[in-house]
Design brief:
The chain contains twelve helices and three strands. It is mainly α. It has a single domain, classed as P1 Nuclease. It is globular, with a radius of gyration of 17 Å. It starts with 9 loop residues before the first strand and ends with a helix. The structure holds 2-acetamido-2-deoxy-beta-D-glucopyranose (2 copies) and zinc ion. The site of zinc ion has 9 residues, from α4 and α7.
Length: 289
């Protein structure tokens, strides 16, 4: 395993977009990519990533992180749509949250099986550079999506079928989490600049409120965990727990982006994006690419 250097690479907060509505929109995904890049990837991993992505993606995980949301609308990649989420068939309104692979990951695959598959493919040196680049883009994106609570929930199609209002605009609950609250926060607090936001999350990890937590975010990541589903399952359960504690705890008719719902959600979104970027860095480093 490679050592974990604090190299300025590029934030790998891929806040991914979900197919059913939006996704951790591009802002989220770019943030994740950027956090990973700026922060925690070893120089060996950085070289691999830069060479693999090349000028098409400005050698940047932040840029490449949104690719998976673009191609899922193309016929050739339609098979990848179910890879952006897992339909946890739990009961969040009854305070019963859970993710079970056998129950929730269908025959078409889900985000957990996809992370396993593309992690294996990324490490498989017999695959072509194009195939490995594709695997890298998928892994980067799915490690983002899996931290969004409504990408890990079946109820009302992950909230897509729940009408909601954000800053006076009609939308749905899923989109409020993917983009509505995040975009508002980045605009209000970080001058509408993803890189400034990503840099703030990196600072929190390195010296701020996340510093004492960060090592706990990656405890499941070991050499042997790379070819299994144990880590993605841990991450999915963690995000899914917010469906019981927070996500469905609103007053119908309220503007979710102008109430305490928003001020409660933002620290969760910041935390989940920071975790995704940090985990992506460690996950890639552990692969010894
Ligand atoms: C490409 O990356 C460089 C160095 O990180 C950066 O300065 C530049 O703005 C990027 N260009 C684009 C189009 O993102
Ligand atoms: C793994 O990825 C390849 C390439 O996209 C795909 O053809 C295959 O069906 C995937 N396998 C699983 C189990 O998801
Ligand atoms: Zn997605």
């Amino acid at each position: 395993m490679k050592s974990f250097t604090a190299l300025e690479f590029a934030l790998v907060f891929a806040v991914a977009a979900i197919d059913r509505a939006w996704a951790w929109g591009n802002v989220g995904h770019e943030t994740i990519g950027s956090v990973s890049i700026r922060s925690f990837i070893s120089s060996e991993t950085t070289s691999f990533v830069q060479t693999s992505l090349g000028s098409t993606y400005n050698e940047s995980l932040g840029v490449a992180a949104t690719w998976a949301d673009t191609v899922k609308y193309e016929t050739a990649y339609e098979y990848s749509k179910p890879y952006h989420f897992i339909d946890a068939e739990d009961s969040p309104l009854s305070d019963s949250c859970s993710v079970e692979l056998s129950r929730d990951c269908g025959d078409e695959g889900c985000i957990i099986s996809a992370i396993q598959n593309y992690t294996e493919r990324l490490m498989e040196t017999s695959l072509s550079a194009t195939q490995r680049q594709e695997a890298l883009k998928f892994v980067t994106h799915f490690l983002g999506d899996i931290s969004q609570p409504l990408h890990v929930e079946n109820y009302e199609v992950g909230g897509n079928d729940i009408d909601a209002t954000c800053d006076g605009k009609s939308t749905n609950l899923h989109a409020v989490w993917d983009t509505g609250m995040l975009v508002k926060s980045v605009d209000a607090n970080y001058d509408n600049d993803v890189q400034t936001y990503a840099a703030e999350l990196v600072t929190r990890i390195k010296t701020g409120e996340y510093k004492s937590l960060a090592s706990g975010w990656v405890t499941c990541i070991t050499d042997s965990a790379l070819d299994g589903t144990s880590c993605p399952l841990v991450w999915a359960k963690e995000a899914n727990a917010y469906d019981c504690s927070t996500v469905f705890d609103y007053t119908k008719g309220d503007d979710l982006c102008e109430t305490s719902y928003y001020t409660t959600a933002i620290p969760i979104i910041d935390l989940q994006l920071a975790k995704s970027g940090y985990r992506l860095a460690k996950w890639l480093d552990t692969m010894a690419l």
